[in-house]
Amino acid sequence: DSMSADTTTTATCGYCATGCGLRLHLKDGEAVGLTPETNYPVNLGMACPKGWEALRVLDSAERATQPLLRDSGGELTPITWDDALTSFCEGMKSVQAKHGAESVAFLSTGQIACEEMAFLGALARFGMGIRHCDGNTRQCMATAVTAYKESFGFDAPPYTYDDFEQSDCMVFIGANPCIGHPIMWERVLRNPNNPEIIVIDPRRTETAAAATQHLQLQPKNDLPLLYAIANELIRRDYVDHDFVQNHTHGFESLRDHVSTFELESVCQNAGLSVDAVSQAIESIGRGNAVSLWWTMGVNQSYQGTRTAQAIINIALLTGNIGRPGTGANSITGQCNAMGSRLWSNTTNLFGHHSFESDADRAKVAEALDIPVERIPTTTSWKYNRIIEGIRNGEIKGLWVVATNPAHSWIDQGDVRELFDQLDFLVVQDMYQTTETCAHADLILPSAGWGEKEGTFINSERRYGLLKKVRHAPGQALADFQIFRGIAHRWGLGDMFAEWTSPEAAFRIMQRASRNQPSDITGIDGYEQIDRCGGIQWPWSQEQADGGFEPEQQRRLFADGHFFHDDQRARLIVDDIDLMPEPADEDFPIVLLTGRGTVSQWHTQTRTRQSPLLRSLYPNQPYIEMNPRDGDALGIDHGDLVRVQSRRGEAEATACLTHSVQSGQAFMPMHYDCTNRLTLSHFDPHSGQPSYKDCAVRIVPV
Ligand code: SF4
């Protein structure tokens, strides 16, 4: 099809946070094909299978093409947009009239554009009186946000993708970029320094197999191990004393705390050899440019925030930050998780301000040109508290935007029952077939990636542009347009009069960003973002006036100044908590969950629409087990098994593999049944669900 195109344009990909540039081939203004952009600073002219198939998934019979309302007989029936907006406003207002303004909540996403998140957050919290709201980013990035905020003074991943190519030692903790972030991994492969690659992971993942050192620890031994590593780095005097003295706080208490984590006992508990860990410590200690990277193995843990901070501590102790090839680097998951962190107006006030600060509220009110009394003085409940709010009858109306909690939330069976207790559930999505749609009273059909405009922020803090290269099917509308329609119908047209288009919203966001670490006042507009191949934050007016180039790759903390008032980073340590549901006699196996393949995405809402992507991955659930456990249980490779936890059970095909250790098993999150098993427990600081550790038993069917 690309052969018949008459023009091309570039847009950033809409799945993962790598933020690859994709070249769209257009005929008469409609995209007929795509290839990876060869002239984009992120992706080296490559894309993963999901990116290649980005257009295909738009042409699906499962698309939501008209608003649907559940009638008195329980059937979802097509209605007009006019009626849908009326139903939405009447439904939500009647819940609020009966149970209070705060009885309505929304759950949004890291999948929609920054401008859409900003609009939703402002409309709901400043306009509609919704107080409680959160995003699916709670499921993936909340831990990193909290860790960075406490350690650095702002949610600020410090790196730029060049760092993948400039390290001489890279440590990946609970991360499998080979399949999770394959284009980032390509950059690792291009690193000319022949880097030491250390993987800390209970599974022998694709990345672990490619590494120079794999510390295959027992699950949830990461925090003690990182403390033991810090202890040894101090003991062997690999500390950058100047850096620690001039740029951090808390060294003495860290030193005292980690001194109790002796290498031998920690290694014994973790199932590691002292020699292997010692070798890793030497690599970290002697490296000139050491970078540490983490994703969900750390974040999705009941002690995730402290684990992330233990990683940050190692970078700070050794002075591995702010220089090329260094950093304590959280890799983001979703295409716009970073946008959600800055603009969703949920945990943090619009633009990562504080709801509690008078000055911040005044600043945001001015940027949005709204009365300051409209801005709540407290933050929202977190996702898990909203779910509890449904259980307690405090939340009666819920608006779910571009996410699929009936599949993805932890202990799924419980969540599905709770959704049926709501008075009014609205789901706004591209597809009308998601597990969450099955519980909806009203479905609002939205346009997808490629059918609308806006910006995404990738893992290295780069604003990239998404573009409208297709017409949305049927009556589906861009989320931005849906929010506009709701604003008008709710009676808030005047308040949001300036929000006429995504780019108009972007200008409001720029005003609100002034003087924040994430200042973007220097960006001229969409055209400049397009021309530069995206622009990393910060890009302030001062930087733009100072003769710097927006295209230049920028990492944070080059001057050793962090975002706390005293400009010092904090070294934070804590006690170790025990796994809440360890394996026992009844449920003898620890279930790990995670991404299973490069070709599927999260709950497969989009990726299962592509025949090609489907063909690259088993359609039926499978579970990876160690052959020794298979033998003991009488289970052969390929057998159907029943996986049971205290919450529920799932059927899956046994895949016997040495990539998981005996006593553990792994199931991909892409299958609907996996979260029937998971245990509802959370990191206390970030509220992030701990998806990676529950006890199960496996029996032959
Ligand atoms: Fe790139 Fe991620 Fe899109 Fe794949 S899914 S093309 S790695 S941005």
Automatic annotation (TrEMBL):
Residues 6-62 form the 4Fe-4S Mo/W bis-MGD-type domain. Its cofactor is Mo-bis(molybdopterin guanine dinucleotide); [4Fe-4S] cluster. Keywords: 4Fe-4S, Iron, Iron-sulfur, Metal-binding, Molybdenum, Nitrate assimilation, Oxidoreductase. CDD domains: MopB_CT_Nitrate-R-NapA-like, MopB_Nitrate-R-NapA-like. Belongs to the prokaryotic molybdopterin-containing oxidoreductase family. NasA/NapA/NarB subfamily. PANTHER family: NADH-QUINONE OXIDOREDUCTASE SUBUNIT G (PTHR43105:SF10), RESPIRATORY NITRATE REDUCTASE (PTHR43105). This is Nitrate reductase.
